């Protein structure tokens, strides 16, 4: 693959639960007509926790992770960065605006500065 084909960093693989939920979402909707999206996820979580044998889904998740690992290695070998692309997933410190001084503090600093100048 060329660098232009690999311009986007591969997406992280789905967990076993998400693979299972994607396969069972329509069935949950059929069994619960008119169910809301949030309730589908809630019901899916209940069914997933009650599921005894999750090995099929764990295996699919492991395969997806192996595929992702290979894609990431190719991506990095072709010049891709290990960091998230610009504009995506910034850390919280980058989001915070600069801290503004309180009005009182700014006034007291102004007074101190004017006193220093008059000395």
From TrEMBL:
<dbReference type="GO" id="GO:0005634">
    <property type="term" value="C:nucleus"/>
</dbReference>
<dbReference type="GO" id="GO:0003677">
    <property type="term" value="F:DNA binding"/>
</dbReference>
<protein>
    <submittedName>
        <fullName>Mobility group protein 1A</fullName>
    </submittedName>
</protein>
<keyword id="KW-0158">Chromosome</keyword>
<keyword id="KW-0539">Nucleus</keyword>
<dbReference type="Pfam" id="PF00505">
    <property type="entry name" value="HMG_box"/>
</dbReference>
<feature type="DNA-binding region" description="HMG box">
    <location>
        <begin position="10"/>
        <end position="76"/>
    </location>
</feature>
<comment type="function">
    <text>Found in condensed chromomeres. Binds preferentially to AT-rich DNA.</text>
</comment>
<feature type="region of interest" description="Disordered">
    <location>
        <begin position="75"/>
        <end position="119"/>
    </location>
</feature>
<feature type="domain" description="HMG box">
    <location>
        <begin position="10"/>
        <end position="76"/>
    </location>
</feature>
<dbReference type="InterPro" id="IPR009071">
    <property type="entry name" value="HMG_box_dom"/>
</dbReference>
<dbReference type="GO" id="GO:0000785">
    <property type="term" value="C:chromatin"/>
</dbReference>
<feature type="compositionally biased region" description="Acidic residues">
    <location>
        <begin position="108"/>
        <end position="119"/>
    </location>
</feature>
<keyword id="KW-0238">DNA-binding</keyword>
<comment type="similarity">
    <text>Belongs to the HMGB family.</text>
</comment>
<feature type="compositionally biased region" description="Basic residues">
    <location>
        <begin position="87"/>
        <end position="104"/>
    </location>
</feature>
<dbReference type="GO" id="GO:0006357">
    <property type="term" value="P:regulation of transcription by RNA polymerase II"/>
</dbReference>
<dbReference type="InterPro" id="IPR036910">
    <property type="entry name" value="HMG_box_dom_sf"/>
</dbReference>
<dbReference type="InterPro" id="IPR050342">
    <property type="entry name" value="HMGB"/>
</dbReference>
């Amino acid at each position: 693959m060329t660098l232009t084909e690999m311009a986007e960093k591969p997406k992280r693989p789905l967990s076993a639960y998400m693979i299972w939920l994607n396969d069972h979402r329509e069935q949950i909707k059929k069994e619960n007509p008119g169910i809301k999206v949030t309730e589908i996820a809630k019901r899916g979580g209940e069914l997933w926790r009650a599921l005894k044998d999750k090995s099929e889904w764990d295996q699919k998740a492991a395969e997806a992770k192996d595929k992702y690992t290979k894609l990431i290695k190719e991506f990095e070998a072709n010049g891709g960065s290990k960091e998230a692309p610009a504009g995506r997933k910034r850390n919280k410190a980058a989001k915070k605006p600069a801290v503004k001084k309180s009005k009182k503090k700014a006034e007291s600093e102004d007074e101190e500065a004017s006193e220093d100048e008059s000395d």
